[in-house]
């Protein structure tokens, strides 16, 4: 019988990333009091390693260094070693990443930081190769040198770490200056549009040459810019930039043409060769963005992509109980007998494999044409592989093909002399066969932890797609996930959210021994999701919960002195800094999204102090918004909505009535960034009527479903025809 493998303390954790390191020879501790006490008691430095389960270089560093017995011994002898999953503890990650970026000019994961016993950082970096090379110092050498310094120059190190901390506090502070006010909307919108326009890739879309990230925040800004400048040439360009980028991404290799969903980002300018991990937060935001593109353009292409993303999430990232998993890894074993994993192995193809799967002759095409020929032409497959060696430094993709749509269906159909409908059916059948073949390959690792914030983004994706595509099943899936959050990531006695829960044995849901409390982003993304879900389902219970959470968010995170919200709550002695994020990146930053949340919350509750708070956040970020709004496109968008005042679209009618449904369909078919929808169903005892007394004065005209457009609780004249309503929504 095989002897049980050595295990360190991480064996008792729930995070899949921490569990991956449970059998390293390194004596890892999770972030917590036990490790801190040991460091203090033994007067040892702490080595902190931060990563996440789909991080390629984290796997590499583990294979090379953390699984190496000798390096493990050096680590155990000289340091207390702590491993952190940054997705579980974004607060810890952010503090030390701020340090690494400030001292080395770059950042990333795995993050490697050396701390004094009182948790102050003094040296940091990212990935270290194990041994010295011509141009770099190896991890082993760094470990020994720092241990030596601690023995020789302890006082100097401690003093230095104190200075570093003070400098970081100063640099990272975001606060309102004097009698600050929100920056003017016109200028911020114009500057942000100009900065995006200047960095736009005219040929392939996107806002950088390479690598290229999906960045839904940029696209959402452009949609709002278009909606507020529909008749100007700039407005037209904003829409064209957004739609072209979404088209090119959907055609590219970043989009999984066989297994659906989107990979993390593209390593090249053409959206062709991606890093293959798939993240929940990308799927959630992109589903919403593609739905919006359909709502605006009416082009079914965008609706199809949104449905494709939601199919992937329903099939691969959904827990039976209703939550959503975090991510699918990039690396996997090429075959069941392979000894080592390769990046992209699950998703790539040789020309030979495709020919073998698609040998059928195609009727109506030139003599000898097979299904394989048609498929390979359409998806850019080459006999020797279609990956540029420059984009494949480890030669993991040599001879392989990453599928990319190289020509339109019309051109492919014309080339083979086929009707368009026929070609479409042939490509669909080909993808089905490739999908079945792929199912035989070993799957990449699935990170089954469920995070409150990312679940929030995914609920918004399902709810918004349900609205724009008029698909009730998406709204139901969103509601199922929201119920899951309320059951597993919310504590009704304290009224607080939890950060994460985990898939246990036999599809149970487990919680760690000491549950991680929710961070600002958990509140913000869930509140946004609940507002989206209310607008999609008109179930008032979701509104009630959203407003409760908003009060709790104010209590835990608001900075009454400098304005805006801190990312984490006060009172955790192990956190050296309370920070405010200041960039909309792969995910929007919480302060950006919360501006719109607060404006929506005020519309549904009549609490005008929430509008004031929204203005105070914009004031705190005013300088950034005026100089470099391109790093805060979501906040720039929210600033425009703030100045433009939200319009309450109130439909008075019987929820089951056909006339009410027709009015709702009209509201939902229009993209309007500054509308808030509510249904006044006549139930005076209901939540909305209790919150908003003015609703009682709105009547159904001639007994028909009637719409009012209200601003600051003063309403327009009633309209009863969808055509009139559409005219009011799109002036």
Automatic annotation (TrEMBL):
Query: Highest taxon of the source?
Result: Eukaryota
Coiled coil stretches, renumbered: none
Q: Which InterPro entries match?
A: 6-hairpin_glycosidase_sf, 6hp_glycosidase-like_sf, Ssp411, Ssp411-like_TRX, Thioredoxin-like_sf
The Spermatogenesis-associated protein 20-like TRX domain covers: 8-168
Q: Which GO terms describe its biological process?
A: carbohydrate metabolic process
Q: Which PANTHER family match?
A: SPERMATOGENESIS-ASSOCIATED PROTEIN 20 (PTHR42899)
Protein name per Swiss-Prot or TrEMBL: SPT20 protein
Q: Which species is this record about? A: Sula dactylatra
